[in-house]
Design a protein that fits this description.
This protein is mainly α. It has two domains: about 70 residues, Leucine-rich Repeat Variant, CATH 1.25.10; about 100 residues, Leucine-rich Repeat Variant (Alpha Horseshoe). It is about 75% helix and about 0% strand. Helix 2 runs parallel beside helix 4 and helix 8 runs parallel beside helix 10. The longest helix is centred in the N-terminal third of the chain and has 24 residues. The radius of gyration is 18 Å and the shape is elongated. About 40% of the residues are buried.
Amino acid sequence: MPEEEETGEKSVERAFNRHISMLRWGGLNERWRAADALAEFADERAVEPLIEALDDDYADVRWRAATALGILDGREAVTPLIHCLEDESSWVRMAAARSLGQIGDPRAVDPLIRLLGDEKPRVRREAALALGRIGNPLARDALLRLLDDIDRDVRGAARQALAEIGIRGEASTA
């Protein structure tokens, strides 16, 4: 039984290393699939290669890497993810906002507030939800302005975020 367990651990380690190699040197489809797979390993050693992948030439890879970093809760990824909020791809901006909300670091509050003005509704929605998850009351005024957004989903996200911030704010003053 111990030999089987060791073999299983070695197999997982080989798979992990294979995905790291694919992320760094594979073709386009291999790189984005590797980013997805690395999130499932829940191994902090994947954080640095995923941060490097945020600079990939292809938006699909950057998007998947940003998503994986939120799942892995990589605090060292906060600054690179903040930079991704300015990516040319709305999918990357959206994934970075979601991941910053999952990580919950207060350094992301001001950049996420600026993202509430993004041209794409899905990006504004994710920025609002991320601000709600972070729970910083500094986002209240910007979220209140979002209640007048032309997009129904964005307005709903703003309401949800305000509710989350309000609940946390009440708990912190009690």
